[in-house]
Structure formats: C-alpha cells, structure tokens
Amino acid sequence: MNKDAATSEHPVDQSFTLSPREKKKILKDRAKLLAREPEKEETAEEYLEVAEFLLAYETYAFEMAYIREIYPLKELTPIACTPPFVLGVINVRGQILSVIDIKKFFDLPEKGLGDLNNIIILQGNSIEFGVLADKILGVRSIPVGEIQSSLPTLTDIRAKYLRGVTKERSIILDAKKILNDDRILVHEEAEI
Q1: DSSP-derived pairing of the beta strands 171-173 and 58-63
Q2: Residues 6 or more apart from 60 whose CB is under 8 A from it?
Q3: What's the pTM value of the predicted model, to 2 decimals?
Q4: Count of alpha carbons within 13 Å of 55, Cβ hemisphere only?
Q5: Coil, strand, or helix at residue 134?
Q6: For labelling, which of 61, 144, 157, 172 has a CA lying 20 to 30 Å from the CA of 36?
Q7: 65 Cβ partners below 8 Å, 6+ apart?
C-alpha cells in the first residue's frame, strides 16, 4: 500500500486532530446544548378533555378538570324552599349532594326524567353538587384551537356560562363560573 492510498482512506485521522483544550470546549458546548429544556413543538396542539352530555336534545360538555364523577340518578329527595332549578339532594356513598337542573337554570325545554338520567358531580374549591344530564355521550379531547367563542342562538344566561363551541356544535360550559355563581348557592333558612 502506498502512502497516498493510506492518506486518502483516513483523511480525518491525519488532518483533523484536536488539542485537549479544543476537545474540552466542544464537550462543554455539547453539554450546554443537551442541558437546555426542549422547546415546545409549534405544531403540537393543546387539547381540552371534556365529558359530553345531552340536555334537551342539545350537546353540552364540561371540562374534565371540574368533574369528580358521573353517577346514576337513583333516589332523589326533593327539598322545600329552594329555587326551581334545585331538584333536591342525593346520597353518594354517604355524602349528601344537591342536584341542579341546569335546563331550568338556562330556561331550556323540559324533558321528563327517564332511565338514562345521570348526575355529573362538579367540584370546585369549596363546593360540590350534581348536575342533571339526560344522557352521557362520553369523554373526548378537543383541540383548543378549534373551539369557537360563541353561538348567536344562545340565550343571555347560557352565553354567560359559555366556555366555547366545538365545530360539531357541542356547547362547552364554563364549570368554574357555574361553581362560583351566587345564584346556585341557597342561603335562605326556612321558618318553622
């Protein structure tokens, strides 16, 4: 093998030798690069996980972060001296919770109670109560970028509690606003 052939086979070995100082600088630069937090991909979308349900033949949803559980409506005990949208209370494994009919709260058409009724138990910082749903449709993730701000057909009260509307026309309610609304809390005491 001649000298030129050996040089052409391993040109990197002969012409690219680093001093210890240069090697240290390269390794330090690599360490800095690897220690950085990865940048969020701009193509990655944020999603909102919601539970969808039917109310008066319209599809509504609550963000899963505010839902403790979905519970079947078994026995409802009516309570006297409450607003019309408070249906009564239920016992959920020893905990007594109020049940709200947001159809009445939003002035939606009535639909009689049937076998498919469920209670969506919402929870906030200091409050928990159930919301009556005609039928639970399921849980799904919605890209935040696809959520529209409003629908012109919503009444004022529903628009107040609106988080957004999906392209499939599911109305996402703002559970935080509902949980913090003073009209939901009953502060009156009945006289005996």
Answers
A1: parallel
A2: 52, 53, 54, 133, 170, 171, 172, 173
A3: 0.68
A4: 24
A5: coil
A6: 144
A7: 49, 175
DSSP SS3 for 61: strand
Domain locations in the chain? Answer: 3-35, 47-179
Mean pLDDT in the chain? 80
By CB atoms closer than 10 A (0-12, 13-18, 19+), residue 99 is buried
Question: Which of the four pLDDT bands, split at 50, 70 and 90, describes residue 82?
Answer: confident
Which of 149, 172, 169, 160 is closest to 64 using CA atoms?
172
The mean pLDDT of 43-50, rounded to a whole number, is 81
Q: Do 135 and 150 meet the contact criterion of CB atoms below 8 Å apart?
A: no
Find out if CATH 2.40.50.180 is the number for domain 47-179.
yes
Phi, psi of 154 (to 5 degrees): -75, 140
